[in-house]
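pinging the channel bc i need a second pair of eyes. not urgent but kinda urgent?? the chain im working w is below, pasted from the shared doc
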Amino acid sequence: MNLIARARSFDRAAEAYEAARPSYPDALLELVPLPRRATVLDLAAGTGKLTRVLVRRYARVLAVEPLDGMRSILEAVVPQAESRAGSAEAIPLPDGAVDGVFAAQAFHWFATDQAVGEIARVLRPGGVFVDVWNETVDPSPLPDGYRERVEAFFDSAPKTGVTLEDRADAVARGPFGDPQHALVRHEQRQSRAAVLEHLSSVSAVAHLPVEEGAALLAELGALLPEGEYVFHIEANARWAVRL
């Protein structure tokens, strides 16, 4: 599957992404070595899940997002950020424009030498690149039948082919120092409808033909009782300093 086409499927699921994806705890930013006076960039910012956390901490926040649908939501919910159209391979900023670049739940789409070179270009020397992601941890609140069907679907779906190690290797090939890692635990409470909406926002599902996606969600909905589902999440930040 063409990864660019699959990434662009997020535009079809922008409202579901905003409604159902988890945010990030403010405490995570306290672990990143950037002062509050910093100018930072949220790269591939989506609907602004991390952007709204960044604006609570840093003096100036820029947000670059290539998809119009995602970016329109970002601009509505985080008007404090300076939003721009653009991509990781062609960041619309001058050299040395920012103190920090964040990529939240997105770096696997552009963990390439070209994109890392662009990130390094817009960072000032001593600036920081931060790869951020949420990871749900056990125990899962979801019924066994639901989880088994979801796992079967993703086992058969095309993969991005980019691992955490690949992402670290891409940064290591650039002008960056040794990586550091920290995490903060938090939780997300979701209704049955929100659980299904979250799944619909995942690229492998959002990219399906409309009827096929609807059939999958209907099948999964039959396996998911009404109720509140509490997910235990680790918010991760892995950063490296621009040399």
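so The beta strands are 39-43, 60-64, 82-84, 98-104, 123-137, 180-191, 228-241. and The chain is about 35% helix and 25% strand. — does that match what u expected or am i reading it wrong
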